[in-house]
Model the fold of this input.
Amino acid sequence: MTQIAWKTATWSLAGIALAWAQLPATPAQAADYTIGEIHISQPWARATPKGASSGAAYLTLTNNGTMPDRLSCVSSNASAECQIHSMTMDNGVMKMRPVEGGLEIKPGETVTLKPAGFHIMLVDLKHPLEQGHDVEAKLKFEHAGTVDVEFPIAAIGAPAPGAGAGGGTMMQDHGGMMQMDKH
Ligand SMILES: [Cu+2]
Done:
């Protein structure tokens, strides 16, 4: 009798903890940035599980100018290296590789970096990316210049900024099915 009561109590506690963990985080407010003719909106990153060697950050870029520009990542406060990656499906395997020479944003074009697409890759993390915190990266545009951007960190596997964990999406993006071409 006592044991049953104890088990029930344990389960309900676990239930509460689970429900709490699944609540969407209230991440720090994402700021917009304008540098030259480039507008940056909705920067965000994904939390990483313990031991993960890399993490991903995302944002939306609009080129309001008349010349193409190119985005590269200079550095981040959370990782040894910062790169721009593309992601493609190759024989059923997601592959990502660094975008050589920077990611082009044509005049008048809006490019969204998002899970399963272009992303900012924080390579060799110094510590896990924690939900509710910020990670900072220094971005460089060939023409517009350099800007420090703060990325509020959403849940592990979040499909979108401010969303909860996205189940299988993490596996598709940075799980075992993925191959990374190191250059
Ligand atoms: Cu990547």
